[in-house]
């Protein structure tokens, strides 16, 4: 995949970032629709507004690199290579889903593309990414473990223990914190006296970087440096992406008690996809027609995935006890 | 045959496996240069170096979660807790992640991780260094639970645990770690889910684990001089549990006593009793009886400590009472 500083990103690479973000956005929109249609049987945590983080980071990853993520993981799974079909089918509880119907929104597994799992528990992904780093170091591989997690995880013990262990052992790991300002509905400004999570890296003796999580080119640049550092034996980095989810914590939840419409609108105005759209058109790298064509193509792919998922069989109840043990 | 201590036998098993497979590494507090608080890794640091004998900070949740991620990505961690009480800080990782990931990944990921530590009441270790918890572990789908009694079993079962692609709790009773027993020179592994008949008998069956096996054998020897014939079954692994060997013994004796140092309520003794009643009710000549440690935190003072754990007199009494029924 592409792995050059953002300043040198060519038109093709930038269009690829644009397309990847759109895939996530259109999938999430289809999933919201599927939730309203009763096709999603459990929770559905969408990633709308945060697409630049997953795409900007995963653009630097190889298939053999290991990504671990959290309950808001649809975007990470797609950016790491899970197909829209496998994602949507999983949320619909179908046998064709990436976890074959065992997981749903919060448990997305596709180890064949390095998506090592998302979790309904906040924090473990940080430890597991450090563990992948330990494996790669022991095996002498130049692969990296990457954890995506939210601001809520940064107040959990797993954050402290994981960053400390990764730091003292110089593990090839990248810790990507998506600070979207709310842990469900608890403002991070309430949960932490210092609202800059990257500052905590100092306590572990590793680099901590703050980046605009709605600017995919900025995320791309910062993540590239962190991934290169990890691959070359330089140890872990903490990246804090300041971002925002513009939909409720979970589909169907009330959303009015903890944030204002004005706040949501102000972040919608900084939409990561529209920002890249503006950059591409302003720099004459793509015109409106070309970008509309990409969107149409993505929408068709995702609509097809939705139909595929809807028409897929449910898993056979007789298989419910399979795989408890190896 | 040569004799080794329990700890030396297990250590030899670990050494053999580490020599065989370079993906195996050990983490824990003081397991590197120091060789382990209980000498579980003595001499291995010099052979395998700091990356494979990795000393940790006091960070149990951290290194259990880390080793879970490592097991998912191509290596085979052995976590040495010293005292298994220390695993309790990591139960969220163990129960929600380590135990479930094979299932959640539809079998596309394996979880080759061994979590070992000493268990058991004794030596005035007091309540934070005396826990066993194996019934709790055995309640969780996805975990294997091994409780060896002899040096021979400790080595053979540890080798199987390390080769397993499932997460294994390997629990070593602290009062057994310095006991000696025969261990063959040639390599061997022991299967999970296969109980040992520690003593054959005809009047009554006792199922016991770990130190309670030794105490029951002492009692059985004394009772033999009175003409009482006790069969002693050591399950060795409780997940999987070899219920067939227990059923065969009960079929022969008609009476079952379960001697378990750990708590009675919702414990492994209750599980064995329930299974025997479900599967072999007609074989029973008397109700199944349990003898457990007291349902209490473990006290420090020797007199208090002795009062909460089954000893030979209590075991002998329970056997006589059950035979009188």
Topology diagram in text:
The complex is a heterodimer of chains A (326) and B (325).
Chain A: H1 11-36, H2 51-58, E1 66-69, H3 74-80, H4 84-91, E2 115-118, H5 124-139, E3 145-150, H6 157-168, E4 173-179, E5 182-183, E6 186-187, H7 188-191, H8 201-204, E7 208-212, H9 216-231, E8 237-242, H10 261-268, H11 272-282, H12 288-310
Parallel strand pairs in A: 1-2, 1-3, 3-4, 4-8, 7-8
Antiparallel strand pairs in A: 5-6
Helix pairs in contact in A: 1-2, 1-3, 1-11, 1-12, 2-3, 2-9, 4-12, 5-6
Chain B: E1 3-5, H1 6-20, E2 24-28, H2 44-48, E3 53-55, H3 60-71, E4 76-83, H4 91-98, H5 101-104, E5 114-119, H6 134-138, E6 144-146, H7 151-163, E7 168-173, E8 180-182, E9 196-199, E10 204-208, H8 211-224, E11 230-234, E12 237-239, H9 243-253, E13 256-263, H10 268-280, E14 289-293, H11 302-307, H12 312-324
Parallel strand pairs in B: 2-3, 2-4, 4-5, 5-7, 6-7, 10-11, 10-13, 13-14
Antiparallel strand pairs in B: 1-8, 6-12, 9-11
Helix pairs in contact in B: 1-7, 3-4, 8-12, 9-10
Tell me about this structure.
The complex is a heterodimer of chains A (326) and B (325). Chain A starts with 10 loop residues before the first helix and ends in a 16-residue tail after the last helix. Chain A contains 12 helices and 8 strands. Chain A has 326 residues and is an alpha/beta fold. The mean pLDDT of chain A is 96. Chain B is built from 12 helices and 14 strands. At the A-B interface, helix 5 and helix 6 of A face helix 3, helix 4 and helix 5 of B.
Summary keywords:
heterodimer, A: 326 residues, alpha/beta, Rossmann fold, 6-stranded parallel sheet, two-stranded antiparallel ribbon, 12 helices, globular, B: 325 residues, 2 domains, 7-stranded mixed sheet, 5-stranded mixed sheet, 37% helix
